[in-house]
Amino acid sequence: MIESTTEIRVRYAETDKMSIVYHGNYFAWFEVGRVCLLDEVGLPYREIEASGYRLPVLEATARFHRPASFDDRLTIKTYIREKPLVRMNIDYEVWNGKTLICTGATRHAFVNKNGAPARPPADFTKRIEVFF
């Protein structure tokens, strides 16, 4: 399993008229967690793209347990629990202190420059092997 932790501070612009974080912002935070996770394991997303691969989102889900508000300091926990093959599943937890406020997941496919499904690049597979 691969795990990463990222800190987020809620900006005023991320809240709605009710002073609650707008639900769509959680997906942007999931992306922040995903990019940080890949960086931490030595597989920056920029390098994946430079090698001719893309990771489009096939599915994205979120379940909201508690609200977040302006200036909250949140922790995004990001997980890859299964070794990626053609698809990669990533899970997320958003914490406000010791309170779990949101869980979510994204499903991605490895595709080549032409958009055809592909196995992950060899360097990617080699680097994540130690985690599984």
Please give a structural write-up.
- This protein is α+β, with helices and mostly antiparallel strands.
- It has a single domain, classed as Roll (Thiol Ester Dehydrase, Chain A).
- Helix content is 22%, strand content 34%.
- Strands 1-3-4-5-2 form a five-stranded antiparallel beta sheet, with helices on one face.
- A hairpin with a 6-residue loop joins β3 and β4 (87-96).
What is the CA–CA distance across the termini? 6 Å
CATH class term: Alpha Beta
Number of helices: 3
Q: What is the helix fraction of residues, given as a range? A: 10-25%
Short account of what is shown:
It is built from three helices and five strands, in the order βααββββα.
Topology summary:
Layout lengths: L1 E8 L15 H16 L4 H6 L6 E8 L8 E8 L6 E10 L2 E11 L12 H7 L4
Antiparallel strand pairs: 1-3, 2-5, 3-4, 4-5
Features:
132 residues, 3 helices, alpha+beta, Thiol Ester Dehydrase, Chain A
